[in-house]
Amino acid sequence: MKTDTIKSPAEAAEGTLFLGDDWFDPLEAGVRTRIRGFIEELLEAELEAALGRDRYERPRLAETGAGDESVVTAGHRHGHRERQLMGSFGPVTVRVPRARLETPDGKTAEWKNRTIPAYQRRTKKADALIAGAYLAGTNTRRVRRALAALFDGAVGKDTVSRVWRKVKGDWDAWNARSLKDEPVIRLILDGTAVRVRLDKKSTSISLLVALGVRQDGQKVLLAVKNMGGESEAAWRTLLDDLVNRGLKTPELVIVDGAAGLDKALAALWSDMPVQRCTVHKHRNLLAHAPDRLHDEISADYNDMIYAASKPEIEAKRKAFIRKWRVKCHAVAASLEEAGDKLFTFTRFPKSQWKSIRTSNAIERLHEEFKRRIKTQTVLPSAETAAMLFWALMASGQITMRKVDGWQSLAEKPSDQAIDLAA
Q1: 219-261 pLDDT, tens digit each
Q2: Model confidence over 144-172: pLDDT tens digits?
Q3: Are strands 184-198 and 252-255 parallel, antiparallel or unpaired?
Q4: How far apart are CA 324 and CA 337, in angstroms?
Q5: Three-state SS across the chain?
Q6: Is residue 275 within 8 Å of residue 250, measured between CB atoms?
Q7: Cα 377 versus chain centre, distance
Protein backbone atom coordinates (compact mmCIF):
# COMPACT_ATOMS: atom_id res chain seq x y z
CA MET A 1 0.00 0.00 0.00
CA LYS A 2 1.41 3.40 -0.96
CA THR A 3 1.09 6.33 1.43
CA ASP A 4 1.31 9.86 0.13
CA THR A 5 2.83 12.52 2.34
CA ILE A 6 2.61 16.25 1.85
CA LYS A 7 5.38 18.54 3.10
CA SER A 8 4.77 22.09 4.13
CA PRO A 9 6.19 24.76 1.81
CA ALA A 10 8.91 25.56 4.40
CA GLU A 11 9.99 21.91 4.67
CA ALA A 12 9.99 21.48 0.92
CA ALA A 13 12.16 24.55 0.52
CA GLU A 14 14.78 23.18 2.91
CA GLY A 15 16.06 20.72 0.33
CA THR A 16 16.16 23.14 -2.59
CA LEU A 17 17.28 26.42 -1.09
CA PHE A 18 20.80 27.59 -2.01
CA LEU A 19 21.32 24.87 -4.63
CA GLY A 20 22.69 25.29 -8.15
CA ASP A 21 26.01 26.23 -9.74
CA ASP A 22 25.99 29.70 -8.20
CA TRP A 23 26.09 28.18 -4.72
CA PHE A 24 28.57 25.35 -5.40
CA ASP A 25 31.84 25.82 -3.49
CA PRO A 26 34.69 23.62 -4.81
CA LEU A 27 36.78 24.36 -1.73
CA GLU A 28 34.07 23.08 0.63
CA ALA A 29 33.46 20.06 -1.60
CA GLY A 30 37.17 19.23 -1.73
CA VAL A 31 37.63 19.47 2.01
CA ARG A 32 34.60 17.31 2.78
CA THR A 33 35.68 14.53 0.41
CA ARG A 34 38.97 14.27 2.30
CA ILE A 35 37.41 14.20 5.75
CA ARG A 36 36.56 10.49 5.55
CA GLY A 37 40.12 9.51 4.65
CA PHE A 38 41.56 11.66 7.43
CA ILE A 39 39.27 10.14 10.09
CA GLU A 40 40.05 6.62 8.92
CA GLU A 41 43.79 7.38 9.09
CA LEU A 42 43.35 8.47 12.71
CA LEU A 43 41.53 5.22 13.52
CA GLU A 44 44.16 3.07 11.82
CA ALA A 45 46.99 4.86 13.64
CA GLU A 46 45.24 4.35 16.98
CA LEU A 47 44.76 0.64 16.30
CA GLU A 48 48.39 0.19 15.17
CA ALA A 49 49.52 1.73 18.45
CA ALA A 50 47.26 -0.65 20.39
CA LEU A 51 48.52 -3.73 18.49
CA GLY A 52 52.14 -2.66 18.53
CA ARG A 53 52.59 -3.20 14.78
CA ASP A 54 51.57 -1.80 11.41
CA ARG A 55 48.83 -3.27 9.27
CA TYR A 56 49.88 -6.51 7.50
CA GLU A 57 53.02 -6.68 9.64
CA ARG A 58 53.66 -10.09 11.14
CA PRO A 59 53.90 -10.45 14.89
CA ARG A 60 57.46 -9.90 16.11
CA LEU A 61 59.56 -12.69 17.63
CA ALA A 62 60.01 -12.62 21.35
CA GLU A 63 63.25 -10.97 22.33
CA THR A 64 63.73 -13.40 25.22
CA GLY A 65 62.28 -16.83 25.72
CA ALA A 66 62.70 -20.45 24.71
CA GLY A 67 62.94 -21.28 20.98
CA ASP A 68 61.95 -19.08 18.08
CA GLU A 69 58.24 -19.11 18.62
CA SER A 70 56.38 -16.02 17.42
CA VAL A 71 54.58 -14.03 20.08
CA VAL A 72 51.49 -11.88 19.42
CA THR A 73 52.16 -8.56 21.19
CA ALA A 74 48.56 -7.45 21.74
CA GLY A 75 45.93 -9.11 19.55
CA HIS A 76 44.68 -9.32 15.98
CA ARG A 77 42.47 -7.48 13.49
CA HIS A 78 39.15 -8.81 12.25
CA GLY A 79 37.63 -6.57 9.61
CA HIS A 80 35.81 -3.23 9.60
CA ARG A 81 32.37 -1.82 10.30
CA GLU A 82 30.76 1.35 9.04
CA ARG A 83 29.87 4.22 11.36
CA GLN A 84 27.86 7.36 10.69
CA LEU A 85 29.35 10.57 12.08
CA MET A 86 28.19 14.15 11.85
CA GLY A 87 30.49 17.08 12.48
CA SER A 88 30.90 20.70 11.45
CA PHE A 89 32.10 19.20 8.16
CA GLY A 90 28.70 17.59 7.58
CA PRO A 91 27.59 13.94 7.72
CA VAL A 92 30.14 11.27 6.75
CA THR A 93 30.32 7.46 6.74
CA VAL A 94 33.65 5.98 7.87
CA ARG A 95 35.03 2.43 8.02
CA VAL A 96 36.09 1.71 11.58
CA PRO A 97 38.70 -1.08 11.97
CA ARG A 98 37.94 -3.88 14.41
CA ALA A 99 40.35 -5.91 16.52
CA ARG A 100 40.57 -8.30 19.45
CA LEU A 101 43.09 -7.47 22.17
CA GLU A 102 44.58 -9.94 24.61
CA THR A 103 43.72 -9.52 28.29
CA PRO A 104 45.93 -10.47 31.28
CA ASP A 105 43.85 -13.61 31.92
CA GLY A 106 44.68 -14.98 28.46
CA LYS A 107 41.36 -14.12 26.86
CA THR A 108 40.58 -11.49 24.25
CA ALA A 109 38.31 -8.43 24.29
CA GLU A 110 36.96 -6.17 21.55
CA TRP A 111 39.15 -3.13 20.93
CA LYS A 112 37.42 0.19 21.64
CA ASN A 113 38.77 3.23 19.86
CA ARG A 114 38.94 6.68 21.45
CA THR A 115 38.61 8.66 18.23
CA ILE A 116 34.92 7.81 17.81
CA PRO A 117 33.64 6.39 21.12
CA ALA A 118 30.79 3.90 21.08
CA TYR A 119 27.36 5.38 20.34
CA GLN A 120 28.82 8.78 19.39
CA ARG A 121 27.06 10.10 16.30
CA ARG A 122 28.16 13.75 16.44
CA THR A 123 31.39 15.53 17.21
CA LYS A 124 31.55 17.84 20.21
CA LYS A 125 31.87 20.78 17.84
CA ALA A 126 28.62 19.80 16.12
CA ASP A 127 26.86 19.53 19.49
CA ALA A 128 28.21 22.95 20.45
CA LEU A 129 26.84 24.46 17.21
CA ILE A 130 23.41 22.91 17.77
CA ALA A 131 23.25 24.03 21.40
CA GLY A 132 24.47 27.49 20.41
CA ALA A 133 21.71 27.85 17.82
CA TYR A 134 19.14 26.85 20.45
CA LEU A 135 20.54 29.32 22.99
CA ALA A 136 20.45 32.10 20.39
CA GLY A 137 16.65 31.95 20.53
CA THR A 138 15.90 29.31 17.88
CA ASN A 139 13.39 26.67 18.97
CA THR A 140 14.00 22.96 18.42
CA ARG A 141 12.00 22.77 15.19
CA ARG A 142 13.72 25.75 13.60
CA VAL A 143 17.27 24.62 14.35
CA ARG A 144 16.90 22.04 11.55
CA ARG A 145 16.27 24.80 9.07
CA ALA A 146 18.97 27.06 10.46
CA LEU A 147 21.67 24.35 10.23
CA ALA A 148 20.33 22.38 7.23
CA ALA A 149 22.99 23.68 4.83
CA LEU A 150 25.86 22.94 7.23
CA PHE A 151 24.70 19.48 8.29
CA ASP A 152 23.04 18.53 5.00
CA GLY A 153 19.61 18.39 6.65
CA ALA A 154 20.72 15.79 9.22
CA VAL A 155 19.56 17.72 12.30
CA GLY A 156 16.00 17.24 13.54
CA LYS A 157 14.20 18.54 16.59
CA ASP A 158 14.84 15.24 18.41
CA THR A 159 18.57 15.64 17.85
CA VAL A 160 18.44 19.13 19.31
CA SER A 161 16.57 17.82 22.35
CA ARG A 162 19.19 15.07 22.88
CA VAL A 163 22.05 17.55 22.62
CA TRP A 164 20.31 19.79 25.11
CA ARG A 165 19.96 16.91 27.56
CA LYS A 166 23.75 16.45 27.44
CA VAL A 167 24.07 19.96 28.85
CA LYS A 168 22.30 18.73 31.99
CA GLY A 169 25.48 17.11 33.30
CA ASP A 170 27.25 20.47 33.38
CA TRP A 171 24.14 22.05 34.87
CA ASP A 172 24.05 19.54 37.74
CA ALA A 173 27.76 20.08 38.45
CA TRP A 174 27.27 23.86 38.48
CA ASN A 175 24.39 23.57 40.95
CA ALA A 176 26.48 21.42 43.29
CA ARG A 177 29.70 23.47 43.14
CA SER A 178 31.17 24.91 46.32
CA LEU A 179 30.88 28.65 46.93
CA LYS A 180 33.36 28.62 49.80
CA ASP A 181 36.08 30.34 47.78
CA GLU A 182 33.81 32.87 46.06
CA PRO A 183 34.79 36.35 47.35
CA VAL A 184 31.20 37.64 47.14
CA ILE A 185 30.52 40.84 49.09
CA ARG A 186 27.14 41.79 47.63
CA LEU A 187 23.99 39.89 46.63
CA ILE A 188 21.34 40.93 44.10
CA LEU A 189 18.13 38.91 44.28
CA ASP A 190 15.14 39.00 41.95
CA GLY A 191 12.64 36.72 40.26
CA THR A 192 10.88 36.56 36.92
CA ALA A 193 7.87 34.65 35.61
CA VAL A 194 8.07 32.27 32.64
CA ARG A 195 5.59 29.88 31.08
CA VAL A 196 6.46 26.18 31.00
CA ARG A 197 4.64 22.96 30.21
CA LEU A 198 3.53 21.13 33.35
CA ASP A 199 1.19 18.16 33.18
CA LYS A 200 0.60 18.94 29.49
CA LYS A 201 -0.63 22.45 30.34
CA SER A 202 0.97 25.86 30.00
CA THR A 203 1.79 27.04 33.52
CA SER A 204 3.47 30.16 34.87
CA ILE A 205 6.36 29.58 37.29
CA SER A 206 8.96 31.83 38.91
CA LEU A 207 12.68 31.73 38.23
CA LEU A 208 14.51 32.96 41.32
CA VAL A 209 17.95 34.35 40.49
CA ALA A 210 20.88 35.17 42.79
CA LEU A 211 23.63 37.37 41.40
CA GLY A 212 26.83 38.01 43.34
CA VAL A 213 29.33 40.86 43.21
CA ARG A 214 32.92 39.86 43.94
CA GLN A 215 35.48 42.00 45.74
CA ASP A 216 36.90 43.11 42.40
CA GLY A 217 33.45 44.27 41.23
CA GLN A 218 32.82 41.42 38.78
CA LYS A 219 29.25 40.14 38.75
CA VAL A 220 28.75 36.35 38.86
CA LEU A 221 25.67 34.15 38.64
CA LEU A 222 25.35 32.13 41.87
CA ALA A 223 22.03 30.30 41.59
CA VAL A 224 18.89 29.89 39.47
CA LYS A 225 15.93 27.97 40.85
CA ASN A 226 12.47 27.30 39.47
CA MET A 227 9.72 27.75 42.04
CA GLY A 228 5.96 28.02 42.08
CA GLY A 229 6.15 31.65 43.21
CA GLU A 230 8.17 34.17 45.22
CA SER A 231 6.97 33.19 48.68
CA GLU A 232 9.11 33.30 51.82
CA ALA A 233 9.58 29.51 51.64
CA ALA A 234 10.68 29.67 48.00
CA TRP A 235 13.29 32.34 48.66
CA ARG A 236 14.44 30.61 51.82
CA THR A 237 15.10 27.47 49.76
CA LEU A 238 17.42 29.40 47.45
CA LEU A 239 19.19 31.24 50.29
CA ASP A 240 19.68 28.07 52.34
CA ASP A 241 21.20 26.39 49.29
CA LEU A 242 23.72 29.24 48.93
CA VAL A 243 24.67 29.02 52.61
CA ASN A 244 24.94 25.22 52.55
CA ARG A 245 27.36 25.46 49.64
CA GLY A 246 29.64 27.74 51.65
CA LEU A 247 28.63 31.28 50.63
CA LYS A 248 29.94 33.80 53.16
CA THR A 249 27.60 36.41 54.62
CA PRO A 250 27.55 39.34 52.16
CA GLU A 251 27.92 42.98 53.17
CA LEU A 252 24.79 44.12 51.31
CA VAL A 253 21.71 42.63 49.65
CA ILE A 254 19.77 44.39 46.88
CA VAL A 255 16.13 43.29 46.49
CA ASP A 256 12.96 44.28 44.67
CA GLY A 257 10.89 44.66 47.85
CA ALA A 258 8.76 41.52 47.55
CA ALA A 259 7.30 40.57 50.93
CA GLY A 260 8.36 36.92 50.72
CA LEU A 261 11.99 37.81 50.04
CA ASP A 262 12.08 40.40 52.85
CA LYS A 263 10.84 37.82 55.36
CA ALA A 264 13.32 35.18 54.17
CA LEU A 265 16.23 37.62 54.51
CA ALA A 266 15.09 38.76 57.96
CA ALA A 267 14.97 35.15 59.15
CA LEU A 268 18.43 34.31 57.82
CA TRP A 269 20.42 37.56 58.15
CA SER A 270 18.51 39.83 60.53
CA ASP A 271 21.22 42.55 60.70
CA MET A 272 22.00 42.56 56.98
CA PRO A 273 21.93 45.99 55.23
CA VAL A 274 19.24 45.78 52.55
CA GLN A 275 18.68 48.11 49.59
CA ARG A 276 15.21 48.12 48.05
CA CYS A 277 15.22 48.72 44.31
CA THR A 278 14.27 52.34 43.63
CA VAL A 279 12.81 51.44 40.22
CA HIS A 280 10.40 48.92 41.74
CA LYS A 281 9.34 51.44 44.38
CA HIS A 282 8.73 54.02 41.64
CA ARG A 283 6.30 51.58 40.00
CA ASN A 284 4.59 51.03 43.35
CA LEU A 285 4.06 54.75 43.82
CA LEU A 286 2.50 55.12 40.36
CA ALA A 287 0.19 52.19 41.06
CA HIS A 288 -1.29 54.14 44.01
CA ALA A 289 -2.22 57.20 41.95
CA PRO A 290 -4.41 58.07 38.96
CA ASP A 291 -2.74 58.42 35.57
CA ARG A 292 -3.00 62.21 35.50
CA LEU A 293 -0.60 62.43 38.49
CA HIS A 294 2.04 60.01 37.17
CA ASP A 295 4.26 62.61 35.52
CA GLU A 296 4.29 64.81 38.60
CA ILE A 297 5.03 61.89 40.93
CA SER A 298 7.83 60.72 38.67
CA ALA A 299 9.41 64.16 38.55
CA ASP A 300 9.34 64.56 42.35
CA TYR A 301 10.53 61.01 42.99
CA ASN A 302 13.46 61.15 40.54
CA ASP A 303 14.43 64.57 41.89
CA MET A 304 14.70 62.96 45.33
CA ILE A 305 16.37 59.67 44.42
CA TYR A 306 18.97 61.22 42.10
CA ALA A 307 19.84 64.17 44.34
CA ALA A 308 23.54 64.98 44.60
CA SER A 309 24.09 64.40 48.32
CA LYS A 310 22.69 62.60 51.34
CA PRO A 311 21.43 65.81 53.08
CA GLU A 312 19.72 66.86 49.86
CA ILE A 313 18.02 63.47 49.56
CA GLU A 314 16.77 63.77 53.16
CA ALA A 315 15.35 67.23 52.49
CA LYS A 316 13.64 66.20 49.26
CA ARG A 317 12.17 63.10 50.93
CA LYS A 318 10.55 65.23 53.63
CA ALA A 319 9.18 67.61 50.98
CA PHE A 320 7.85 64.65 48.93
CA ILE A 321 5.96 63.18 51.90
CA ARG A 322 4.50 66.51 53.03
CA LYS A 323 3.28 67.30 49.50
CA TRP A 324 1.81 63.92 48.66
CA ARG A 325 0.14 63.39 52.02
CA VAL A 326 -2.15 66.19 50.90
CA LYS A 327 -2.45 65.43 47.17
CA CYS A 328 -2.60 61.61 47.32
CA HIS A 329 -2.07 60.07 50.74
CA ALA A 330 -1.56 56.53 49.35
CA VAL A 331 1.55 57.67 47.49
CA ALA A 332 3.13 59.17 50.62
CA ALA A 333 2.20 56.07 52.64
CA SER A 334 3.83 53.80 50.06
CA LEU A 335 7.10 55.75 50.25
CA GLU A 336 7.07 55.71 54.05
CA GLU A 337 6.46 51.94 53.97
CA ALA A 338 9.88 51.42 52.38
CA GLY A 339 11.59 53.11 55.33
CA ASP A 340 15.35 53.61 55.26
CA LYS A 341 15.87 50.51 53.09
CA LEU A 342 15.09 52.61 50.04
CA PHE A 343 18.05 54.87 50.88
CA THR A 344 20.67 52.36 52.06
CA PHE A 345 22.79 53.38 49.07
CA THR A 346 23.49 56.75 50.77
CA ARG A 347 25.66 54.96 53.35
CA PHE A 348 28.13 53.95 50.66
CA PRO A 349 30.63 56.00 48.62
CA LYS A 350 28.85 58.10 46.00
CA SER A 351 30.68 56.31 43.17
CA GLN A 352 28.70 53.16 44.09
CA TRP A 353 25.24 54.74 44.25
CA LYS A 354 24.34 53.91 40.66
CA SER A 355 25.06 50.17 41.06
CA ILE A 356 23.38 49.92 44.49
CA ARG A 357 20.15 51.89 43.92
CA THR A 358 18.47 49.28 41.69
CA SER A 359 18.36 45.58 40.85
CA ASN A 360 18.88 46.48 37.18
CA ALA A 361 21.80 44.04 36.90
CA ILE A 362 19.34 41.14 37.18
CA GLU A 363 16.53 42.94 35.35
CA ARG A 364 18.74 43.20 32.27
CA LEU A 365 19.40 39.46 32.43
CA HIS A 366 15.66 38.82 32.68
CA GLU A 367 14.98 40.99 29.64
CA GLU A 368 17.64 39.26 27.56
CA PHE A 369 16.41 35.85 28.69
CA LYS A 370 12.83 36.70 27.70
CA ARG A 371 14.04 37.97 24.33
CA ARG A 372 15.83 34.68 23.66
CA ILE A 373 12.86 32.48 24.53
CA LYS A 374 10.06 34.53 22.94
CA THR A 375 10.09 32.30 19.83
CA GLN A 376 9.24 29.27 22.00
CA THR A 377 6.21 30.70 23.85
CA VAL A 378 6.15 27.77 26.30
CA LEU A 379 9.31 26.02 27.51
CA PRO A 380 9.29 22.19 27.74
CA SER A 381 9.67 22.00 31.54
CA ALA A 382 10.46 24.00 34.66
CA GLU A 383 14.00 22.63 34.86
CA THR A 384 14.60 23.50 31.21
CA ALA A 385 13.78 27.13 31.99
CA ALA A 386 16.38 27.32 34.77
CA MET A 387 18.94 25.44 32.68
CA LEU A 388 18.42 27.76 29.74
CA PHE A 389 18.95 30.84 31.90
CA TRP A 390 22.21 29.38 33.23
CA ALA A 391 23.39 28.14 29.83
CA LEU A 392 23.04 31.60 28.28
CA MET A 393 25.58 32.80 30.84
CA ALA A 394 27.84 29.72 30.82
CA SER A 395 28.12 29.69 27.02
CA GLY A 396 29.06 33.36 26.83
CA GLN A 397 25.86 34.31 24.99
CA ILE A 398 25.30 36.84 27.79
CA THR A 399 28.25 38.47 29.53
CA MET A 400 28.41 40.68 32.62
CA ARG A 401 30.76 43.54 33.34
CA LYS A 402 31.98 44.94 36.64
CA VAL A 403 29.64 47.11 38.68
CA ASP A 404 29.94 50.88 38.55
CA GLY A 405 32.20 52.21 41.30
CA TRP A 406 34.03 48.91 41.76
CA GLN A 407 37.27 50.78 42.53
CA SER A 408 35.83 51.88 45.89
CA LEU A 409 34.33 48.56 46.99
CA ALA A 410 36.99 48.17 49.70
CA GLU A 411 35.73 51.30 51.48
CA LYS A 412 33.52 50.62 54.49
CA PRO A 413 29.96 52.03 54.46
CA SER A 414 28.72 54.52 57.02
CA ASP A 415 26.70 53.29 59.99
CA GLN A 416 24.41 56.32 59.86
CA ALA A 417 21.09 55.68 58.14
CA ILE A 418 19.03 58.41 56.52
CA ASP A 419 16.88 60.62 58.76
CA LEU A 420 13.26 59.50 58.32
CA ALA A 421 11.70 62.35 60.26
CA ALA A 422 9.14 64.11 58.09
Answers
A1: 999 999 999 899 999 999 999 999 999 999 999 999 998 899 9
A2: 666 666 666 556 666 666 776 777 788 88
A3: parallel
A4: 14
A5: CCCCCCCCHHHHHHCCCCCCHHHCCHHHHHHHHHHHHHHHHHHHHHHHHHHCCCCCCCCCECCCCCCCCECCCCEEEEEEEEEEEEECCEEEEEEEEEEEEECCCCCEEECCCCCCCCCCCECHHHHHHHHHHHHCCCCHHHHHHHCHHHHCCCCCHHHHHHHHHHHHHHHHHHHHCCCCCCCEEEEEEEEEEEEEEECCEEEEEEEEEEEEEECCCEEEEEEEEEECCCCHHHHHHHHHHHHHCCCCCCCEEEECCCHHHHHHHHHHCCCCCEEECHHHHHHHHHHCCCHHHHHHHHHHHHHHHCCCCHHHHHHHHHHHHHHHHHHCHHHHHHHHHHHHHHHHHHHCCHHHHHHHHCCHHHHHHHHHHHHHHCCCCCECCHHHHHHHHHHHHHCCCCCCCECCCHHHCCCCCCCCCCCCCC
A6: no
A7: 18
Mention every residue, 6+ apart, whose C-beta is less than 8 A from residue 365. 209, 211, 389, 393, 398, 400
Sorting pLDDT into bands at 50, 70 and 90, what band is 77? confident
Most confident range, picked from 11-20, 125-134, 310-319: 310-319
Residue 14 one-letter amino acid: E
Taking residue 224's Cβ as centre, other Cβ atoms within 10 Å add up to 23
| Burial (CB count <10 Å: 0-12, 13-18, 19+), residue 349 | middle
Give 260-299 pLDDT, tens digit per residue: 999 999 999 988 999 999 999 999 999 999 999 999 999 9
Long-range contacts of 256-259, Cβ-Cβ distance < 8 Å, separation of 24 or more: 256/189, 256/190, 256/191, 256/280, 256/359, 257/281, 257/284, 257/338, 258/191, 258/230, 259/232
Kindly give, in sequence order, each residue whose CB lies less than 8 Å from that of residue 53, ignoring residues fewer than 6 positions away: 59, 60, 73
- Residue 62 pLDDT > 60: no
Q: Which residue has the higher pLDDT, 35 or 208?
A: 208
How many other C-beta atoms are found inside a 10 Å radius of the C-beta of residue 364? 12
